[in-house]
Amino acid sequence: MHTKYKILTLSVAFAVSGMALQSCHHADESQEKDTRFQVTDSLIHSLLIDTVKEASALSQITLTGSIAPDENKMVKVFPLVSGVAQDVNVQLGDVVHKGQTLAIMKSAEMAGFTRDYVSSEADVRNTKRVYESTQDLYKSGLASQKDLEQAQSDYQKAQAEGKRAGAVISINKSNANGYEVKTPLSGYVVEKNLTNNTQVRADNSQNLFTIADLSTVYVLVNVYESDISKIQTGDPVKITTLSYPDKIFEGKIDRIDNILDPDNKVMHARIKIENPGNLLKPGMFANVLIKAKSGENLPEVSANSLVFDNDKNYVIVVDGKAKVHIQPVTVAKTVEDRAYISQGLKPGDRVIASRQVYLYESLKD
From which residue to which does any coiled coil extend (predicted)? Predict the structure, then answer.
């Protein structure tokens, strides 16, 4: 009897232990199931979604160039009279303002212009007085019609000569010291070919000064023959210089020449850019980054949505409500913040564009 009771007790104990173990096993399964990562509908709504688009892929071309003045805002100052330069008041690189005197010249021609002007003014006064006197005599019958017409003609000729002499004086500005060489616009002195005591001839083919307004400037770019087909007028560009490596100047291709330079076999392109604060100076070296169309139509997606792991690129694709999957992709090229995909995506696909690394790490386990 005692033996039977002992066997029954052991059976009950084993049964209880088995139930306890089974209960623990189910508890572990429930715990594992509860802690497993799941993508919920609310999580999807909290993330940024980028829709894949088909676009003409861009290519980046890096070229070199140099800063040059805008030819439409630049003037060359030539001598209008001969003489000897005195009081050259400006140096290369100086800032000048419209109407400012750049130099004074002692000029015999200018003395002759002044004499002509003074003489013409005197003739105008004399012929006017004669004309008025002849009118009075004609009214009194003491002068003929011919005398009146002659006096009027002399007066008109004197007036015309006075206007001519005045125009010459107004063009050739002078003061008590001599002929004044003035700048017709505000800007920088970018060329200077005059010093004190230089003898200047009126037929001199060389300009005395070049003044340039640098509020806008050109970047002259050398385009290699292999890159000619990749660029066109209107392509946006970004420009950096050695002087301001952290500052980016933006512009567009303004003009492309149609012939190659026979010396270095490059074609020249011109970019017009704004120059705030006149930071860019003529002659500066420039690095030019051109974004040009490559002619390929590839799916385009934000480069921020890519996940790089084990030398491969991946994206998280949304394929339904609260359903996502990891998709390997092949990136053809990346231009700034856009990635062009050659394999793995098609236009219309939706990819996760925020917290994608976190999702990738959670989904791949």
Answer: none
